[in-house]
């Protein structure tokens, strides 16, 4: 399998070049890029198959756009043969796009890896002229910008109610999304040459304007191949997709989409909603940055029907209006002994799980808890009124239960738990997951006092 996003900067005499090394250890590999190292979200970029003659490689374009391979257009999902020195351009035309040089690293005459090289000049945002920060790609022209820069542009276009034109080539933008493959590359270049880095303040300002959190779809969504569950029953691909969302054809709450409306795809149901920045209705979970449509359609007073995929309003709700009756499975690092102790401890106190969580949400909201280990995005911005998704709520509950346990004196725990000593490795202990006896004898709801 390919080692992904393994970026190693060039130390050769050719300045201003960066390369991406991908070790191919099998005959076939799909190249992904990752959102961040901890993330499970991966984005396919291309699939590479080593041919039997060893010196050539078949590349299948798995990205969402056409690319150029040695000046030949390769459509999405099509294949091309590449060899040492092949040039790959990340878009359908040469101009303004990144080009990579593929090199077969010959180690004892065996093709072992691929090297992607690119010119640093092609990794700059044409709005701010810096190396991209949190790069987003506009389609169908496939020009790349900083998320913050493009978001400001998008906002201005939407205020003027005009279609969104690419700031670089003026093509009508029909799609814009974060580009996780290029993210790795931009980071590599910055590691190579730190003089290209911007100040922390500049980055903070840019981040505060960044609105593009997931893949956006503009217009008809004809090319939509992502999941589209239980909607548009019996209708063929080409049919109703002309109207991707309920507001495209019908006015609700005083709003109707126009042909240039940007649409967001809901992570919960796969349905579409118009992206609207101006109305104060959350369309993303702040904890994970994914789009959810529940709160939006509720605010638009849309009656759910079978025609379009829409979520129930529960998918995106303020923390304070959520309820909980069971300890989430991920609590205490999935350690069921600890979950059991927490559960018995709560009932011994004559409380319900809901009572405890409500109390701790108050403390959380009053910033009485250290948020360092909170497993959500934007932890400092989250309050009791923040809309988050079900998954993030479970994570929050797990986090609060950790603090509940940490702050409960041992003598208040159920009898069998009062005498347990803390495991040196605390919550980070790996043994707790495979050694029942160890998990029972040692407390793991504590900070590690040793690291491995
Ligand atoms: Zn920029
Ligand atoms: Zn463009
Ligand atoms: Zn619409
Ligand atoms: Zn979430
Ligand atoms: Zn939805
Ligand atoms: Zn342990």
From TrEMBL:
Keyword flag Iron: no
InterPro entries per the UniProt record, alphabetical: CHFR_Znf-CRD (IPR040909), E3_ubiquitin-ligase_CHFR (IPR052256), Znf_C3HC4_RING-type (IPR018957), Znf_RING (IPR001841), Znf_RING/FYVE/PHD (IPR013083)
GO cellular component term of the entry, any: nucleus
Keywords: Cell cycle, Metal-binding, Nucleus, Transferase, Ubl conjugation pathway, Zinc, Zinc-finger
Keyword Nucleus annotated: yes
Cited Pfam families: zf-C3HC4, zf-CRD
Stated name of the protein: E3 ubiquitin-protein ligase CHFR isoform X2
Subcellular location: Nucleus
GO molecular function, one term: zinc ion binding
Domain RING-type per the UniProt entry, residue ranges: 125-170
SUPFAM superfamilies attached to this UniProt entry: RING/U-box
Biological process, per Gene Ontology: protein ubiquitination; ubiquitin-dependent protein catabolic process
């Amino acid at each position: 399998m390919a080692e992904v996003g393994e970026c190693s900067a060039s130390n050769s005499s050719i300045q201003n070049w960066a390369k991406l090394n991908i070790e191919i250890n099998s005959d076939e590999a799909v190249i992904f890029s990752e959102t961040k190292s901890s993330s499970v979200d991966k984005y396919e970029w291309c699939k590479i198959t080593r041919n039997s003659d060893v010196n050539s490689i078949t590349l299948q374009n798995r990205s969402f756009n056409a690319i150029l391979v040695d000046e030949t257009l390769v459509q999405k999902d099509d294949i091309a043969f590449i060899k040492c020195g092949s040039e790959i351009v990340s878009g359908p035309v040469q101009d303004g796009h990144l080009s990579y040089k593929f090199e077969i690293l010959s180690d004892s005459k065996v093709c072992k890896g691929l090297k992607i090289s690119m010119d640093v000049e092609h990794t700059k945002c044409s709005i701010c002229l810096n190396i991209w920060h949190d790069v987003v790609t506009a389609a169908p022209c496939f020009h790349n910008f900083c998320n913050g820069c493009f978001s400001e542009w998008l906002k201005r276009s939407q205020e003027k109610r005009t279609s969104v034109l690419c700031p670089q080539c003026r093509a009508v933008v029909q799609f814009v999304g974060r580009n996780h493959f290029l993210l790795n590359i931009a980071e590599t270049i910055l590691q190579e040459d730190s003089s290209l880095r911007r100040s922390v303040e500049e980055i903070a300002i840019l981040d505060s304007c960044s609105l593009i959190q997931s893949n956006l779809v503009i217009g008809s969504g004809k090319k939509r191949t992502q999941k589209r569950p239980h909607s548009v029953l019996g209708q063929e691909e080409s049919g109703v997709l002309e109207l991707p969302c309920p507001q495209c054809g019908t006015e609700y709450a005083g709003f109707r989409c126009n042909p240039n409306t940007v649409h967001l795809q809901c992570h919960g149901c796969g349905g579409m909603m118009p992206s609207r920045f101006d109305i104060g209705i959350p369309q993303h979970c702040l904890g994970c940055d994914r789009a959810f449509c529940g709160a939006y359609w509720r605010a638009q007073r849309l009656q759910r029907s079978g025609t379009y995929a829409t979520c129930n309003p529960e998918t995106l709700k303020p923390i304070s209006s959520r309820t909980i009756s069971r300890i989430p499975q991920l609590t205490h690092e999935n350690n069921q002994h600890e979950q059991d102790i927490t559960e018995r401890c709560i009932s011994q106190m004559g409380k319900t799980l809901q009572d405890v969580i409500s109390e701790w949400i108050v403390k959380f909201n009053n910033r009485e808890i250290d948020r360092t280990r909170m497993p959500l995005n934007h932890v400092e911005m989250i309050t009791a009124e923040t809309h988050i998704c079900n998954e993030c709520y479970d994570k929050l509950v797990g986090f609060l239960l950790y603090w509940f346990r940490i702050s409960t004196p041992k003598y208040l725990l159920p009898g069998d738990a009062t005498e347990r000593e803390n495991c040196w490795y605390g919550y980070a202990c790996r043994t707790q997951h495979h050694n029942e006896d160890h998990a029972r004898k040692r407390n793991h709801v504590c900070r590690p006092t040793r690291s491995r």
